[in-house]
């Protein structure tokens, strides 16, 4: 079994890759930073020395690099069973104050990357009549908030992409799940003053994804929303 997880050098993506490797999946991961990617690859491999870990330096905001990553995946793995579109960046700001071009930048990474990679890998997944696509949305996909700005716009868009894809994939028996975590203890929250136990551990998100995958083939969880016990921050 083979899985693809984007933005997997740390945080939620790495936790998912580690869990899937532990469960016996070969995994393909990507990130922009070579050092953190190499460290993640070693940690993931340590979870299961018997699986293949493909790690590629990719800027998911660049379509050409996304498509090159897809080509490398298809050359390495004969099938793709799980695709986790996790890559994304968080930059807060009010729409009327944020810098010009921020929406385009965030759309490229948070939405277009999932669109292009999914389209590139579907020719491998469709003939299988099996598989699962997870799109990492956010509680910001459901509720607008001050200073959410372009980030929240992109997360609403990614949820819309997930809903559309879910309808299209039904005849092919490919499950599509939108996963929307609230505050999770990842690098995105570096510098924010909050107790660690006020946020969710990324391993919880990985466990939820594994649970969704483990259901009967005729069952799909369309949307998952997770929040800390005390709510959003």
From TrEMBL:
Signal peptide: none annotated. The keyword Flavoprotein does not apply. Keywords: Oxidoreductase. InterPro entries: NAD(P)-bd_dom_sf (IPR036291), Sc_DH/Rdtase_CS (IPR020904), SDR_fam (IPR002347). It comes from the Bacteria. The keyword Cell cycle does not apply. Belongs to the short-chain dehydrogenases/reductases (SDR) family. This is SDR family oxidoreductase. It comes from Chitinophaga nivalis.
